[in-house]
Design goal:
15% strand; 10 helices; elongated; 5-stranded mixed sheet; 405 residues; alpha+beta
Length: 405
């Protein structure tokens, strides 16, 4: 007869492995929990700053709490029964195998009805939340078209009060990376993509929304108070997906009205110095892709060297706090310069000229944007190419761009 009972040494070894495994699980759990406790996080969905985000928060917190309670009951029960009724003796002996329990109608109804009721309540609350989030803002509120492309966000404003979406033109204001809105108002967003699938998300203000090529979707956003809120593309969309960032800048209603009037104006053509030379160089080197209203009009999408057919409109570049997919600061990131808001360029010491110069010098060194061979052969590129601008040309272009206030 073969002895299948575990040896004493094997039992101790198994116990040590189990203790080590349990200790590892505890340490990993603590590390995962601690990784979510980041102070001053810029993208925190558990710190709602709008009624849309608060509506989502009011749904997910009870669900998390309920899920935690159920997990504790299930895991606690499993651990209790595994210890309390652990196997004893030789399991090869049929007499030591416990009798299976089945046919208990009360237990079966209990573990069927309770989960069904939980799912019904959560499902109903989710549907109610979806309808709240999809409620359309008043037609007189700002309407913004959000266009995702590799690898930046374009924002086009329609300032009309028409209630017919098809009548909106979305060309009153065109900007990139920084979306400016009035605080305390619901903003309607029309969203689409020029190339691949993207994902739009500002955790403190709203939930996520996929931006799909060839399909227009509607979305809403709001901010309760003036401030800067940080967003991110949430769908892998190519080499610079992780760098595809943006900000939502909420202004007071008075400041927003001033911003709108300023953005509607055309750029001023420089008439002297390096800036004048830079304007001429911009027309010849950069005007194929970039618009500056009042100075240069980019080539139509069909003849553009860009895969998406468009590059950021730079008309009032120096009223934006970031550039290059929202990755780099145009405004020097010091308390003094940040306090100046979007008027920071009135103080030349607050313009981040060094990083802007580095970007123009070799953008592909600062962000991964290389195109595939087939696109290069077709004279198509993704992102900003290296134009091999001379040092003197860099001085001229930076001087010119700094005038775009």
């Amino acid at each position: 007869m073969i002895d299948r009972s575990p040896r004493r040494g094997q039992g101790r070894s198994t116990a040590k492995r189990n203790r080590a495994l349990g200790f590892g699980v505890v340490v990993a759990s603590i590390a995962m929990f601690a990784s979510g406790c980041v102070p001053n996080a810029k993208q925190d969905s558990l710190n709602p700053k709008s009624h849309y985000a608060q509506t989502i928060y009011n749904l997910i917190v009870p669900v998390f709490i309920l899920g935690g309670i159920i997990s504790l009951i299930v895991l606690g029960g499993t651990m209790y029964f595994s210890v309390r009724y652990r196997a004893k003796g030789d399991l090869s002996d049929d007499e030591n195998i416990p009798e299976p329990v089945h046919g208990n109608a009360i237990m079966e109804l209990t573990w069927t009805i309770i989960p069904s009721l939980i799912i019904l309540v959560i499902g109903g609350a989710t549907v109610i939340t979806i309808f709240k989030l999809d409620k359309q803002p008043p037609p007189q509120n700002p309407h913004i078209e959000v266009i995702g492309q590799q690898w930046w966000w374009e924002f086009r404003y329609d300032l009309s009060t028409t209630s017919t979406e098809s009548a909106r033109k979305y060309n009153d204001i065109v900007t990139a990376n920084d979306m400016v809105i009035p605080a305390g108002e619901d903003i309607s967003l029309r969203m689409n993509s020029r190339d691949v699938l993207h994902g739009w998300w500002v955790p403190e203000l709203q939930g996520k929304r996929d931006v799909v090529p060839g399909r227009t979707t509607m979305f809403n956003v709001a901010a309760d108070k003036p401030g800067t809120y940080y967003g991110q593309c949430t769908v892998i969309c190519g080499l610079s997906h992780a760098n595809m960032r943006f900000t939502v800048v909420a202004l007071s209603k008075a400041d927003y009205a001033k911003w709108v009037e300023h953005q509607k104006q055309k750029a001023t053509v420089p008439t002297s110095g390096l800036a004048k030379e830079g304007a001429a160089l911009f027309r010849s080197q950069c005007g194929m892709c970039h618009d500056i209203r009042g100075i240069v009009t980019a080539a139509p999408p069909a003849s553009s060297p860009l895969v998406s057919g468009a590059a950021p409109d730079l008309t009032h570049l120096m009223t934006r706090a970031t550039f290059a997919s929202g990755t780099f600061d145009l405004r020097v990131n010091t308390p003094r310069c940040v306090a100046k808001g979007l008027n920071y360029a009135d103080d030349p010491t607050c313009i981040n000229s060094a990083e802007l110069r580095a970007w123009i010098h070799d953008p592909t060194d600062m962000l991964p944007m290389a195109a595939g061979e087939s696109e290069l052969k077709a004279n198509k590129v993704r992102g900003m190419p290296n134009l091999n601008v001379s040092p003197s040309g860099l001085d001229q272009l930076v001087a010119f761009l700094e005038t775009l206030k």
